[in-house]
Write a structure and sequence with these properties.
The structure holds 2 protein chains of 2 kinds. By secondary structure, chain A is α/β, with parallel strands linked by helices. In chain A, 35% of the residues lie in helices and 28% in strands. By secondary structure, chain B is α+β, with helices and mostly antiparallel strands. Chain B folds into 2 domains: 199 residues, no CATH class; 183 residues, no CATH class. Chain B starts with a helix and ends with a helix. Classes of the chains: A alpha/beta, B alpha+beta.
Chain lengths: 232, 415
């Protein structure tokens, strides 16, 4: 199997935590492939390993055993600086609690990753304004996060996640803190970006709405794969 | 990255904490200016007082005179030394003087003491404390006359009044005892017991004749400078200009007033030590505040690192915050300190009710009015040191911020 056919690949991955002396096996000997252009969701009860899998694919956490590949690169072999650059350039994150930088405006939050990449100012401006248009937030550029609703903040978070054209956007419970209308808007937006630009999305979710709209649904239980409606 | 914008907004987010931290920096500047300023003022004042008591800031004397003052050690050509000295930048005055031990007698009474031969035409009150302290009569007006100005306490001992005769007995350069008859033209009162009871001012040329020095002979030439910081340079330049002039030594007040120099060095050391302790306390406060700020924002740092900010950039961001905090503290410090500085430099605090008007230390009269004087370099040193302390106090919190693990902080916020 060619790595180029996959954005992310987990090979016999386990992740073990210790709560005091108690061993918690969050992910247990899991294999998983995420292809380019997927619009997939990980579902399962709390503690099933959804967030841990997202963390490992997003180079935020490392497996206890097994290997995680992102665009063919073995993440377990990269140093802290390389992982940081990889997250900056190839991964977009959408958090349940939005997690915008409170001291930055909507525009500056969307611009944040491009600024880290040292993209020239004019190009940055063009790309940020274009993506803010796409998420319907062009009229809110000077608002700080505390001046925006939850749905609006999540749209800015999506703009921040996709503005740098990442290989994959990892979204953890992106609709958990917003009402139904805002949830639908957010999912419409993500579906649109996936359809038009081919952005790969991987969600973790409890939300029926997200599960219904995901084209691939991976069910987890106790860190193991329970079901995958598009198993390779 | 807009690190400066982010830093300023972060500081404005918690205004109270920022103000309290800036105030502690400002208070540090206030204390440092007070400690350093009072030191600079009192040291300068003491050194200047010591200089105008006879030896000047720099003393050009015959070799060995400073170590063992004796009338047998003398400079043969005072005019050459004086002219060379006056050509040097920062030199305000150069005064030829003869200083030595003598026996003073009037009627049946006699006392031992010191005489200072001076030229009444060249001498200026600004550079001669005794002239400023004349309380009766006046300075003799001719350099070869027979006038004498005597301390009030010696006058009392010898039962002398203005116009009365005074016999001065000295050992001349050949070791022969010789006497001169003079008349009291004035009396001085410096407030210093030793000076008022033992020193007599005499005409320079008269003493040159008495001591058989010839017209150019003096014990030393006292050089006064307009800025104490120029002393070492002036000393070097005088030394250079007198190359080949024979057995001459050029000494600064540090060598001629070793007791005073030692006293100042010890006092300055304690002053710096005190400032260091105050600085450490303030730095600990700043470090604590920055640490709190970093801990409170660890989730924020985690998010920034999750989306790609490098740990080094996080460290830099916290240091940039400290930079602005330091700048704000310095501005507040200047605002807080300026009125105090102006009051203390112009008016000061009169401590004479506690220490008296004639308080002396290291053999030098000390001004009982405590004032502040700050050299420009001292002011820069304080500001730069306080700024660097602020930055140094933030290094550890900044490193802590850079060590935040995104996965740990995001755990608390559900990814």
């Amino acid at each position: 199997m060619m790595d180029a056919e996959y954005i992310a690949r987990l090979d016999r991955v386990s992740r073990v935590y210790y709560q005091g002396r108690v061993e918690v096996r969050a992910v247990d000997n899991l294999d998983l492939l995420i292809r380019p252009g997927e619009f997939s969701a990980l579902s399962g009860p709390s503690g099933s390993g959804k967030t841990t899998i997202l963390n490992m694919i997003g180079a935020l956490d490392m497996p206890t055993s097994g290997t995680v590949y992102l665009e063919g690169r073995d993440l377990t072999r990269l140093g802290r600086g390389e992982l940081s650059r990889l997250r900056r350039d190839r991964v977009g994150f959408v958090f349940q609690a939005y997690n915008l930088v409170p001291v930055l405006t909507a525009y500056e939050n969307a611009e944040f990753v491009l600024a880290l990449q040292n993209v020239p100012v004019q190009e940055r401006r063009d790309r940020v304004m274009a993506v803010l248009e796409e998420v319907g937030m062009a009229g809110y550029v000077n608002r700080r996060p505390d001046e925006l609703s939850g749905g609006q903040q999540q749209r800015i978070a999506i703009a921040r996640a996709v503005v740098s054209d990442p290989a994959i956007v990892l979204a953890d419970e992106p609709t958990a803190n917003v009402d139904l209308e805002a949830a639908n808007t957010i999912l419409d937006l993500m579906e649109d970006l996936n359809a038009r630009k081919g952005v790969t999305f991987l969600f973790s979710t409890h939300d029926r709405l997200v599960m219904d709209r995901a084209r691939r649904l991976v069910k987890l239980r106790d860190g193991r794969l329970e079901d995958d409606n598009q198993a390779a | 990255m807009k690190l400066h914008v982010m830093a300023l907004r972060t500081l404005s987010r918690n205004k109270r904490r920022t103000l309290i931290t800036s105030f502690s920096i400002a208070f540090g500047i206030f204390l440092a200016v007070t400690f350093t300023g009072t030191g600079d003022y009192s040291y300068t004042s003491m050194i200047n007082t010591s200089a105008v008591m006879g030896l000047g800031h720099i003393s050009v004397a015959a070799e060995g005179y400073n170590e063992r003052p004796s009338l047998s050690r003398w400079l043969p050509d005072m005019d050459r030394v004086r002219k060379k000295a006056l050509m040097i930048d920062s030199v305000e005055g150069a005064y030829p003087r003869i200083m030595g031990q003598a026996m003073f007698a009037a009627g049946a009474k006699s006392v031992g003491g010191m005489f200072m031969g001076i030229d009444p035409v060249l001498e200026k009150p600004a550079h001669n404390f005794f002239l400023r302290s004349i309380v009766e009569g006046e300075l003799f007006d001719t350099v070869d006359g027979r006038g004498a100005v005597i301390g009030v306490e010696m006058a009392e001992k010898l039962n002398l009044r203005l116009g009365k005769k005074l016999i001065v007995t000295v050992t001349d350069k050949d070791g022969e005892l010789t006497s001169e008859l003079l008349r009291i033209s004035g009396m001085f009162k410096t407030g210093d017991h030793d000076a008022d009871s033992s020193i007599v001012l005499l005409p320079l040329a008269r003493m040159q004749q008495t001591l058989k020095y010839g017209t150019g002979g003096v014990s030393f030439v006292a050089v006064h400078v307009d800025d104490l910081r120029a002393v070492n340079r002036v000393r070097r330049e005088i030394n250079g200009s007198l190359t080949g002039a024979g057995n001459v030594e050029v000494l600064t007040w540090r060598q001629t007033q070793a007791d005073l120099s030692g006293l100042i060095a010890v006092d300055r050391l304690f002053n710096y030590l005190m400032q260091l302790l105050v600085g450490l306390v303030i730095a600990a406060g700043i470090m604590n505040t920055m640490q709190m700020s970093v801990l409170e924002r660890s989730r924020e740092f985690g998010i920034m690192m999750a989306v790609g900010m490098a740990p080094g950039q996080v460290v830099r961001m916290v240091l940039v915050e400290s930079f602005w905090l330091g700048c704000l503290g310095i501005v507040m410090g200047i605002v807080l300190t300026a009125p105090w500085f102006i009051y203390m430099s112009e008016t000061g605090i009169d401590m004479s009710s506690y220490v008296g008007r004639d308080y002396s230390a290291g053999g030098v009269l000390v001004d009982p009015v405590v004032k502040i004087r700050l050299f420009r370099e001292s002011a820069f040193f304080i500001l730069i040191t306080v700024f660097l302390l602020t930055m140094a106090a933030s290094v550890y919190p900044a490193i802590r911020a850079g060590r935040v693990l995104p996965v740990d902080t995001l755990k608390d916020s559900t990814f």
